[in-house]
Design a protein that fits this description.
mainly alpha; Protein translocase subunit SecE; single chain; 6 helices
Length: 161
């Protein structure tokens, strides 16, 4: 039943993709048709500058706690330093999100969300059954390792004395 449902889901998604392609006004390839890997492999001078800026800001965020209170009086307050560090971290993430690799990562997250919706999760009874099976196997393997450990301790004890 599950494979039939998967086949129907695949056929439905293919039909929707085909219908979506027919409904577009022009047949040019869009940015969405490129894969995340192709987008991530492309780069520009803007990407390099954004990466360098993000790295510099993250390094600065690590130094805020140690050096900023000596130069700026309000930074003696813990919450001011925490808010500055959080703001610098968010700024670095925004810089990274604007790169080609950041766009590819967003595409990857969207694709992962689609795949998670397709997952067939086990029922409560199946989860309970599999959990007990794992516990029993762990107990058996643990007992076997304990027996081997005792045997090797005895065996080595014969030679060491």
């Amino acid at each position: 039943m599950s494979t039939n449902q998967d086949n129907l889901d695949n056929k439905l998604s293919d039909a929707k993709a085909t219908a979506g392609g027919m409904l577009t006004k022009n047949n040019h390839t869009s940015a969405n048709s490129t894969s995340a890997v192709e987008v991530a492999k492309t780069g520009s001078a803007k990407d390099v500058m954004l990466w360098l800026l993000a790295i510099a800001v993250l390094i600065g965020a690590t130094l805020v706690n140690q050096y900023l209170p000596g130069y700026w009086q309000p930074a003696n307050d813990l919450w001011v330093r925490v808010s500055i560090i959080v703001a610098l971290f968010v700024f670095a993430l925004v810089c990274l999100a604007l790169t080609h690799q950041g766009r590819a990562f967003k595409t990857l997250l969207k694709d992962a969300a689609v795949e998670l919706r397709r997952v067939t999760w086990p029922s409560k009874d199946e989860t309970f059954q599999y959990t007990w099976q794992v516990i029993v196997v762990i107990a058996i393997v643990g007992f076997f390792i304990w027996v081997l450990d005792n045997f090797f301790n005895w065996f080595v004890g014969l030679f060491i004395g």
